[in-house]
Design a protein that fits this description.
heterodimer; A: 116 residues; mainly beta; 7-stranded mixed beta sheet; 4-stranded antiparallel beta sheet; 0% helix; globular; B: 110 residues; 6-stranded mixed beta sheet; 10 strands; 54% strand
Chain lengths: 116, 110
């Protein structure tokens, strides 16, 4: 079992809905990440939080809004998504982040999101 | 065992044989590399990592080789088992960002 827990496992939402994805880790890691993975493709980085502060936004559209309430929790707020946003959204954590941190990232099992 | 000289998207292996999965990375400045295994319906699972000051690292049934001269990374799996069937991704760390390769789907034949 993964030590990074993501909820919900599946989410179906309309384009006008607002929903949130949640991620939790209790490994004491201080860096957390959101990735997007389309079918049969590798994960692509969206956001990086380091010590609860947003350090990297990979030019993600504003309809995705990340939040890090504390060192164990990471949320991704969704609003007015498009059908092409349907994907597996993965959360990961590492002991520390930042430049040249060279730490393994540990992933949750993701939330499979479908936009109608 | 089976080996793949170039990166191929799929690899079929007989149970009990050794597998070799290859990966070419793009950035000569990358100094940290990870292999992940992703099973259907799961997130990527850490297998093994290697830093650029090493050329070989061994784990339980797995070995990672790094050739910085040609920017090539490989994962060797000894005595492949049915539970090894999955998609395998190499990933390189450049500065802050972990970038994944295209992935190789490994299928183990009984």
């Amino acid at each position: 079992d993964t030590e990074v827990t993501q909820t919900p496992k599946h989410l179906v939402m309309g384009m006008t809905n607002k929903k949130s994805l949640k991620c939790e880790q209790h490994m004491g890691h201080r860096a957390m990440y959101w990735y997007k993975q389309k079918a049969k493709k590798p994960p692509e980085l969206m956001f990086v939080y380091s010590y609860e502060k947003l350090s990297i936004n990979e030019s993600v559209p504003s309809r995705f809004s990340p939040e890090c309430p504390n060192s164990s929790l990471l949320n991704l707020h969704l609003h007015a998504l498009q059908p092409e946003d349907s994907a597996l959204y993965l959360c990961a954590s590492s002991q520390r982040g930042g430049r040249r941190s060279n730490q393994p990232q540990h992933f949750g099992d993701g939330t499979r999101l479908s936009i109608l | 065992g089976e080996s793949v000289g170039l990166h191929l998207p799929t690899l079929s292996v007989q149970e009990g044989d050794n597998s070799i999965i290859n990966c070419a990375y793009s950035n000569s400045a990358s100094d940290y590399f990870i292999w992940y295994k992703q099973e259907s319906g799961k997130g990527p699972q850490f297998i093994i990592d290697i830093r650029s000051n090493m050329d070989k690292r061994q784990g339980k049934r797995v070995t990672v080789l790094l050739n910085k001269t040609v920017k090539h990374l490989s994962l060797q799996i000894a005595a492949t088992q049915p539970g090894d069937s999955a998609v395998y991704f190499c990933a390189e760390m450049d500065d802050y960002k972990l970038s994944f390769g295209a992935g190789t789907t490994v299928t183990v034949r009984a």
